[in-house]
Structures are given as structure tokens and as C-alpha cells.
Amino acid sequence: MASFFSSARRVLTRALLVLPLALLVCFAGAANAAQWTAEQLTVPAGPDGSLVTFSEQEIKAGRKIFNSSCGECHAGGITKTNQNVGLDPETLALATPARDNVDALVDYLKDPTSYDGEYSISDVHPSLRSSDVFVKMRDLDDDDLRLIAGYILVSPKVQGLQWGGGKIYF
Ligand code: HEC
Fold it and tell me: Is the distance from the beta carbon of residue 145 to the nearest atom of ligand 1 less than 6 Å?
């Protein structure tokens, strides 16, 4: 009888030890599991239709830079002071040249142009060219611009219409 109790206690103790461990493994697994699919992380690299797949780390890094450098005007993918020129895919695609790819966005952030591509707006829009005025651009290099572009293009694939949503179509 005594041995029955002691072995039962041993089983119970073991179960109590294993259970939290199993739960921990489950939660850790969920936290590390891929948040976004490769399809969502894949966006146009250039105007030629080539594609690039970002890693989640890159998109998260891009989000951080975007929020601190661009968030005051473009939070959520809209443009506060010009609702017609948001960062949603449709608006980017219809710009001249089309801005719905990484290369075009990186170019834009070096020397932004009007929506019709006719003239530079670097004196009023943050860019590397105007980093003397827009000081937040000073710390950014080409790779940072690439990460920002990735974030802008992946966001609508993850957030849907929430990105640039609430946009008013005139
Ligand atoms: C002071 C406000 C402000 C800040 C800061 C700002 N932007 Fe803009 N952005 C605008 C405005 C206004 C426009 C519309 C320009 C125009 O008239 O074509 C615009 C346009 C754009 C466009 C063109 C969108 C399209 O559909 O053609 C892109 C891309 C863009 N911004 C990216 C960025 C990024 C990335 C950053 C951060 C590095 C940034 N902007 C910081 C105000 C801002």
C-alpha cells in the first residue's frame, strides 16, 4: 500500500513538472512561429516585374524607421496633408513613374518628385537630397531606404485596406 502511494506521488510530481514545461514550449513556439507568409513578404523589386522576399526582421526594422522618420505624416499609410497621395498600392501604382516597387520608392526617398513626375519636391518632402533641412534623413543609408520601401509594400498585404484606408477618393 505504501509503495502504491509513493509511486502515485511520483507520477503526480512528474506530471506537475512536465505540464508547465509543455505549456512553455507551446507558447514559445507560438511566439516564434512565422507571423507572415512568404507570399505576404514578397513584393515587386523593380519596374521590370522582378520580385524580392523580405524577412520578418527586415519588415520590423523598416516599420521602426518608417514610424520615426515618416510616421508624423504617413501613419497608417495615409498622407495627412494630402489625402490624394497616400501610400496605398493603387495610388503608388498610378504615379509617374509607378512607385509600387522597392527601387522606385528608394529613388523617391533620394529625390522625390511630384505625382506626375514632372518636378522635384525634395525641398518640401524629406529625402536624402534634402537631409540638410529634414534632419531625420541624415542617419538613413540606402539599406534603410530599402527597409522602409519593404515596409510600405508589405503593409497593405498584411493589413489590407487598413493601410492607407479611410482614403477619400475624389
Ligand atoms: C512633413 C510630412 C511628410 C513626411 C515627414 C514624409 N512625407 Fe511622404 N509625403 C508627404 C506629402 C505631402 C506627400 C504628397 C506629395 C505630393 O504632393 O506629391 C508625400 C508623398 C509621399 C510618397 C508618394 C506617394 C504616392 O502615392 O505617390 C511616398 C512614397 C512617401 N511620401 C514616402 C515617405 C517616406 C518613406 C517618408 C519617411 C522617410 C516620408 N514620406 C515622410 C508628406 C510627408
Answer: no
Residue 63, domain extent: 38-162
* 137 and 71 belong to one structural domain: yes
- CB distance 105 to 148 below 8 Å: yes
In a domain, 44, yes or no: yes
Quick: pLDDT tens for 3-55: 666 676 776 667 666 666 666 655 555 555 678 999 999 999 999 999 999 99
- Which residue owns the Cα nearest ligand 1 atom 2? 73
Query: What does the pLDDT look like over 143-169, one tens digit per residue?
Result: 999 999 999 999 999 999 999 985 554
Q: Determine whether 64 is exposed, middle or buried from the number of CB atoms within 10 Å of its CB (0-12, 13-18, 19+).
A: middle
Query: Domain for residue 68, yes or no?
Result: yes
Closest C-alpha to ligand 1, atom 37: 70
Is the CB of 113 within 6 Å of ligand 1?
no
